[in-house]
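Hello, quick one for you while I still have it in my head. I'm working through a protein record and want to make sense of it properly. Would you mind checking whether the tokens look sensible for this chain? I owe you a coffee for this, so here goes:
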Amino acid sequence: MLCWPFFAEQVTNCRYVCEEWGMGMEMPREAGRDEVEAAVRELMGNHQWRRRAAEWKDKANKAVAAPDGSSHMNFQKFVDEIIARPTTK
């Protein structure tokens, strides 16, 4: 992932993507066309990042594929909480 944070949570998201998850690189604030092109080429050619992206893809597929996947379970918890709340008028 190519990160170019400017405000709000983008800086935090960039830190996680680049440093914690090792899935991308941060662009300099004043990057131009040539810098963006070089960064994209570097990302596309980096086999470590490609391998990590494939791992994350597999994890995401597992999370949504089955009823016991984490995405399905979390969504079901959300629905159950809404249903359990008393209605106010």
Observations:
- Residues 80 and 86 are 12 Å apart (CA to CA).
